[in-house]
Amino acid sequence: MPFSTAVASCPFKIGHTPLTACQVRIGDLTHELLVKEERCNEFGSVKDRVAWYILSKTIEKIGPVKSVVDASSGNYGNALACICQRLGIGATIVSSASISAHNAAQIKGAGARLVIAEPKPGETSNAARMRVAGEIAEKDGSVFLDQYSNPLNPAAHQNWTAPELFAAGPFDAVFMTSSSGGTSRGFADYKKAHPGHTQLCLVEPESSCAFLDSPSGCTDKLKIPAFGSQRRSSFAGMKPDPGMIRMDEAATLAAFTLLHEHQLSKVGLSSVGVILGALDWLSRQDTPSRVACICADGDERYLDEIQSRYIPAVGQQAYEAARARLAPVIAGMRLVGPVQQTAKAAAQ
Ligand SMILES: Cc1ncc(COP(=O)(O)O)c(C=O)c1O
């Protein structure tokens, strides 16, 4: 394990996030599903790790910086803005119109500049964000952290999130989604260095093509922020290809509201998609299994816009049909509580 000063010297409450166990009854089998609660990081998401890791490693390399700029779908920008505010560094976050109201408010509340990038004809929103962030860096001299191409993004997960999770292993499978592809590539690189039997599975909506071609040709708009990506990740190319489970967004929204009604979880939308992917995988197993889900953020980022934005985006009928189908599945889940994580994780 390479010693990482970025991890060891982090002055914020980032990392050591809880792992919460659920029992899942499917047919005659009882499985264990573990939720890595990245919402418990100080600024509320898994991207806290990436923002701190990239910023601190950059400062370590080039010395103090006055201002930074980067592109983000929302959570990374929120974390970076909050960290920069505490450190007295100016921050510009370039996002898209799809940013959640919560993240937009947090970024502005932290005193950062929020720029919404308009895609040119034929350009994805993700590519537009990267282009505009690069233009701003050239114009005002801010340091462009470039999370979407920066190898420090997957390295944050290879050296921090993954060892922390695997210290609580073994797992039969680990599930996550991709936006920049940083988490998935970081976990794949960790697995390559620490071979074992655990399967890595990406859970994404049909039109995502972050790592593998989309059956629908990547043309439909994504409806949930950071649940998949319409741009091939700069970190693609890991071998072997990750396992892929396609999970539709109507089912994800239905499971989100059901999990809340049953008080089973407070994770965000992409995380619920990941949990559904894990349930789908478990339903195909013939022995009791133990699996973990990387749950990127919390429900507070979505609750205000569930009725006004997300359910209309998938369609009320599709949402209701998914709720009827998933109600017995969610009713088969039982919250057990936090798993004791070992001191080994703390050392890494
Ligand atoms: C809600 C949410 N889920 C999942 C991800 C995926 O993370 P990555 O960018 O590492 O692929 C992100 C990243 O921004 C996110 O904000």
Question: Residue-averaged pLDDT, rounded?
Answer: 93
- Which descriptor suits the 3D outline? globular
CATH architecture of the largest domain: 3-Layer(aba) Sandwich
Strand arrangement across the biggest beta sheet: 9-8-7-10-2-1-11
Q: Could you describe the largest sheet, including whether it forms a barrel?
A: 7 strands, mixed
Number of domains: 2
First-last Cα distance: 8 Å
What is the CATH topology assignment of the largest domain?
Rossmann fold
Domain Tryptophan synthase beta chain-like PALP: 14-293
Keywords: Pyridoxal phosphate
InterPro entries: Cys_Synth/Cystath_Beta-Synth, TrpB-like_PALP, TrpB-like_PALP_sf
Pfam families: PALP
Account of the protein in words:
This is Tryptophan synthase beta chain-like PALP domain-containing protein. It comes from Hyphomonas adhaerens. InterPro entries: Cys_Synth/Cystath_Beta-Synth, TrpB-like_PALP, TrpB-like_PALP_sf. This protein folds into 2 domains: 7-41 and 156-338, Rossmann fold (3-Layer(aba) Sandwich), CATH 3.40.50; 47-144, Rossmann fold (3-Layer(aba) Sandwich), CATH 3.40.50.1100. The chain has 12 helices and 11 strands. The chain has helices spanning 5-8, 47-62, 75-87, 101-109, 125-140, 152-166, 182-193, 249-261, 269-282, 306-314, 316-331, 343-347, and strands at 19-26, 29-37, 67-71, 90-95, 113-116, 143-144, 173-176, 199-204, 243-246, 290-295, 333-338. The strands form 2 sheets. The chain has a 7-stranded mixed sheet with strand order 9-8-7-10-2-1-11, sandwiched between helices. Strands 5-4-3-6 form a 4-stranded parallel sheet, with helices on both faces. A hairpin with a 2-residue loop joins strand 1 and strand 2 (29-37). Helix 2 (47-62) crosses helix 6 and helix 10 (306-314) crosses helix 11. The N and C termini lie close together (8 Å). Bound molecules: pyridoxal-5'-phosphate. Residues 45, 47, 73, 75-76, 177-184, 226, 268, 270, 296-297 line the site of pyridoxal-5'-phosphate.
